[in-house]
Design goal:
By secondary structure, the chain is an alpha+beta fold. The chain contains nine helices and 25 strands. 36% of the residues lie in helices and 28% in strands. Strands 10-9-8-15-14-11-12-13 form an eight-stranded antiparallel β-sheet. Strands 4-3-7-6-5 form a five-stranded antiparallel β-sheet, with no helix packed on it. The chain has a five-stranded antiparallel β-sheet with strand order 16-25-24-21-22. The longest helix is centred in the middle third of the chain and has 47 residues, at 248-294.
Length: 518
């Protein structure tokens, strides 16, 4: 029962709904007749007598039927109409809130799903494809993509795409004037395109001239703890289902997702860098072992000579090398060399030198010929790398008490006699790669079997510098060698290197020392 304008109570009996111009009863006691709905509120004659019909403004096409007042006067069931209208509005609001709640649930579920995806994998390309499909579904975008910044190429690379024809997604140059993604990356601000009037809306600015379907591009940023945020990619959505534009709520959702992706991108980059570092360390360790395996063991000369030798690389691999050979009849051949460069280029030259030296030492007899043949074998590599090699090669024949040598610019080669006398074995030819190996020939000096020492080292020892900037120098090494000349060569080498390490713990070059007694 509701109150009429006159204050009497009337009972609205039926509700009618116009469907394609034909009234259908939706509430009240059923009747076997169909009323003629008027254009405006008023009386309508029915088989049950005059009845009052009034439209419900809150719901187009819905009409309220009530009894006519005494004598057929028209009542005004305003209160009933208001109550029904309010009920309908409340119902629509409940439906809207339910839809909104369902949408928010989808968004929260999407964020949770993305967190799980990103937490279970470090392969961004794999997870990005799943993410872009889920995001497209929730916001209703037919086409979407995720692009990330490729530091090596200095461009944006597509890692996932949805609904984009093959060949359309790929690499985007950062300075591309027609690319929205490139612009968003440069400006680090989201852009929302309106399909109705062609306006791009972004925080604080509007620009004309962009026509087409609705789109939204949001930067993917990452900020390290205590650091500034930096853009590392862009997420793009376009061609929205229904044709309407993306709104602020969509932007907030995509921005939240972009933040998650940004953290995952950085995590993936760090993991990839760590894996690459581990791979490089393994390869460097393998290269170190391979290089060390090229250098012969002192056991090679067991029975013919006593040898002490250490070859310590500044990096994982280095350019210092040594080799020695049995030449028959108790004769021994010894070579020490130093490549001018460092790292892998020096290591490759060192490996070539060791291999070639072994071949040439067996094929020719004179030391100068060995160095000349070695220079010829390495000529192309030395020229290509713009490097040179200082090399010392000596042949010791205890049967006749003689040492024959050739020295290609190697500064630190000495014979130390039984009384501590020191003889410098000077250069006989330029370093390999710095000039022709002339025919000055080899040089020969006397050798006291069992008493004399051949001592050769590289400049990593003499150039070792302490914290005060003082060089260790050649004199200290010569004095230490002479003082310990009675010891086994291995003990001599260990003592000298230990003294250098104490003086200059931090090496700045490869360090090699060889001591031979025959």
């Amino acid at each position: 029962m509701v109150e009429s304008l006159e204050g009497t109570l009337v009972a609205p009996e039926r509700l009618w709904h116009l469907v394609d111009g034909r009234p259908e009863q939706v509430f009240g006691a059923p009747v076997d007749w169909t009323p003629a709905i008027p254009r405006h509120a008023g009386l309508v004659l029915t088989p049950d007598g005059p009845r009052w019909f009034a439209p419900i403004d809150a719901e187009p096409g819905l009409w309220l039927e009530g009894p006519a007042h005494d004598g057929g006067a028209a009542p005004a069931p305003a209160a009933a109409i208001v109550v029904i209208a309010q009920s309908l509005r409340a119902e629509r609001e409940i439906v809207r809130l339910c839809q909104e709640l369902a949408t928010r649930y989808e968004e929260v579920d999407l964020l949770y799903t993305i967190s799980e995806i990103l937490g279970q994998t470090v392969q961004l390309d794999e997870s990005a494809r799943v993410i872009i499909r889920a995001v497209s579904s929730v916001v209703g975008a037919r086409r979407a993509s995720i692009v990330v910044f490729d530091e090596r190429a200095k461009a944006l690379r597509t890692v996932a795409a949805q609904g984009i024809p093959p060949g359309r997604a790929g690499v985007i140059q950062l300075d591309d004037p027609d690319s929205i993604a490139a612009r968003v990356f440069r400006e680090q601000k989201p852009l929302i395109g309106d399909p109705v009037d062609g306006v791009i809306l972004s925080p604080g600015r509007e620009e004309r001239g962009y026509q087409g379907t609705a789109f939204m591009s949001v930067p993917i940023t990452y900020a390290a703890p205590g650091g500034r945020a930096r853009c590392i990619g862009v997420i793009n959505l376009t061609d929205r289902i229904g044709g309407d534009r993306f709104g602020p709520t969509d932007r907030k959702l995509i921005s939240a997702i972009a933040s998650q992706i940004g953290a995952a991108l950085e995590n993936a980059r760090l993991v990839a860098r760590d894996r690459e570092q581990q791979r490089l360390e393994r390869e460097l360790e393998l290269a170190k072992h391979l290089q060390q395996s090229l250098l012969p063991s002192p056991a090679v000369l067991a029975g013919d000579a006593q040898v002490g030798v250490r070859c310590l690389s500044l990096e994982s691999v280095g350019g210092d090398f040594y080799t020695f050979n049995r030449l028959g009849g108790g004769r021994v051949g010894v070579m020490v060399g130093d490549v001018s460069s460092h790292g892998f280029s020096a290591a490759l030259l060192m490996a070539s030198a060791v291999s070639a030296a072994g071949i040439h030492a067996s094929a020719v007899s004179a030391p100068d010929q060995v160095l000349a043949a070695l220079a010829g074998s390495l000529a192309d590599e030395l020229a290509a790398s713009e490097s040179h090699i200082t090399a010392f090669y000596a042949m010791v024949d205890p049967a006749i008490g003689r040492l024959v040598y050739a020295n290609a610019g190697h500064p630190h080669a000495f014979r130390i006699g039984p009384a501590g006398e020191v003889t410098r074995l000077e250069a006989t030819t330029p370093p390999l790669g710095l000039g022709p190996q002339d025919d000055r020939g080899s040089r020969a000096i006397p050798w006291a079997p069992g008493d004399d020492l051949l001592c050769v080292w590289t400049d990593g020892l003499t150039d070792a510098v302490n914290k005060a900037g003082e060089r260790y120098g050649e004199e200290r090494i010569v004095e230490a060698l002479a003082a310990r000349r009675r010891d086994h060569p291995e003990a001599i080498v260990a003592a000298v290197l230990s003294a250098v390490d104490r003086f200059a713990p931090t090496a700045t070059d490869d360090r090699t020392l060889l001591v031979l007694r025959v």
